[in-house]
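[DERIVE STRUCTURE TOKENS]
===
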Amino acid sequence: MKSIGSSVWKLLLLRGILALLFGLLAVFLPAITFSTIILWLGAWLAINGVLMMVGSFQDKAEDKNWWIAMLAGIVSLLLGIYTFMNPTVTGAIIIVYLAIWSLIVGIAEIVFAIRIRKEIKGEGWLIAGGVLSIIFGVLLLANPIQGAITLTLLLGIYAFIYGLFLVILAMRIRKTLIHL
């Protein structure tokens, strides 16, 4: 138990420190952090695309539909390249996508709440959540750049608090192990 615990607390501590650092970067440098996240997305899309193409080519003899994975790999690679060439556009597209998703979810929640209002009590909460989703979507559409910065700030605050919890947990586990 003690050997498992000694590696666990160290990993928790490392994860906590990394989360704290990411949180601080996102809070104090939100535009740079958002841009970096977009570039990481581009790298993942490109690498994923190449790996999908290689895998589909290797499966060509056994899979008559190998070209579907090849096509998906090509699209992923092209999206990755596009993301590197136009990170601002990609970031804005992601924010617009989130905005449209929020609008659709908000409308669906309101419609659902109205449809089931006779069967349940408290449908007002679902309506309020739907309205909140719609407001969020409208705000993101009204200013995608500010929306990206705000979302990055919220992500940073979350990461910082989460990192703090992990560091505290790691220290408690370490303290427990010392007393074993």
